[in-house]
Amino acid sequence: MDALSRRVLQFGDPIGGIMTKADLVEQVTAAMARTSGPLISKKDCARVVDSFLDAIKHALKEQQNIEVRGFGTFKIRRRKTRMARNPRTGEPVEVAARPVPVFKPSKELRALVADEPFEADPDDTDRAAS
Question: Exposed (0-12), middle (13-18) or buried (19+): which is 40, by Cβ within 10 Å?
Fold first, then answer.
């Protein structure tokens, strides 16, 4: 069985597919059942996923950065005021400055997505341990 087939069997959709929140809940519930038995219902798992996402939204609304080691960082970046064009008339329009949420993946996640082996930086492990 090739890697793509294993991945389709494991995650349901082929590479490039869309994972919905319901799919995420399904995967988390299945992972919990495999590791610690059926201790959490799908409904409870959906509450956990919703709470996690709400906590991220709330922190970003409060202009806080969220760092999840080995995954990445959610942060707010301030976009500058810029000039754009109205596509219908071609007339210049000023786009106001605004905060936008951004996600910066960790080195580990980037390596995983690129299918490359990840080697932890010795300086990062010292920081994580303290």
Answer: middle
